[in-house]
Amino acid sequence: xxxxIVLMSLLGSALMGTIAAAAPFTFSTDxxxxxxxxxxxxxxxxKTEIEAADDFVLGAQTQINSATFTGLLTGGxxxxxxxxxxxxxxxxxxxxxxxxxxxxxxxxxxxxNALATRDSAAxxxxxxxxxxATSLTASNSVLNGINPIPGQTTGGEGAxxxxxxxxxxxxxxxxxxxxDHYFFVPQVQVTGGEFYWLxxxxxxxxxxxxAPDLQAWIRNASLAPDWERVGTDIVGGTTxxxxxxxxxxxxxxxxxxxxxxxxxxxxxxxxxLGVTVVAGVGRRTTAx
Length: 288
Hints:
Layout: H1 2-15, E1 18-19, E2 22-28, E3 32-39, E4 50-58, E5 62-73, E6 79-89, E7 116-119, E8 126-138, E9 140-142, E10 160-177, E11 180-191, E12 195-200, E13 217-220, E14 228-229, H2 230-235, E15 244-245, E16 247-254, E17 259-260, H3 266-287
Parallel strand pairs: 3-9
Antiparallel strand pairs: 1-17, 2-16, 3-12, 4-11, 4-13, 5-10, 5-12, 5-16, 6-7, 6-11, 8-10, 12-15, 13-14
């Protein structure tokens, strides 16, 4: 009886002319612009953890199923091990406030603590790689020069060359995120080299523009829980550059409203509803 009632309810809703639906979600900052390469790696194999972060905005609850990000792999015989993706909210959420004062500002930075994490070692993230160029040089880089004040401004560590590689990650446990402002943090463990996340244009040109589009931030284990702006704090200068990270997101988000049911399907659904009603009446008659 309960199954029949549910079926009739669903068919009735359909005959009212609408069905529920989810809309595809896509976001992109576009491809690399070659200006900056930001180290980002988990603390594995004796290396200090480094996290590079760039932001995105969701206007509704969204299920993130997959992502891509593009970076450099240095070292001719480098080997990719683990891949992690972390999601942070914006400070002061998930953070101690006021902060400890070891950086110029925490306004518009990622929070102290990650909201959610997926990683290949835990089995909730799968990844593949595609070599886009066998050799690419980024004009500037950040790897070791991530320091608290007053030594935060280093100008960067100069050009770095490596294989340009796009990572495609699938979240076997998707991220379910509400409407909010977030930071995306990809990390790659490399043996025999380093992974550098490549910057993309800021403001976004060929991707998905949004406002406010915050700049890329970075930290290492020594600076944590604080973060520094890659352009404004570390590179510095009279007119500091600002960077985005090259990445994209894909998933689904609830549709803005019910989707009209195609009129061609109405007769068939009406017939099915009629059969269901008749069958229900027949069963009640037999029971008497």
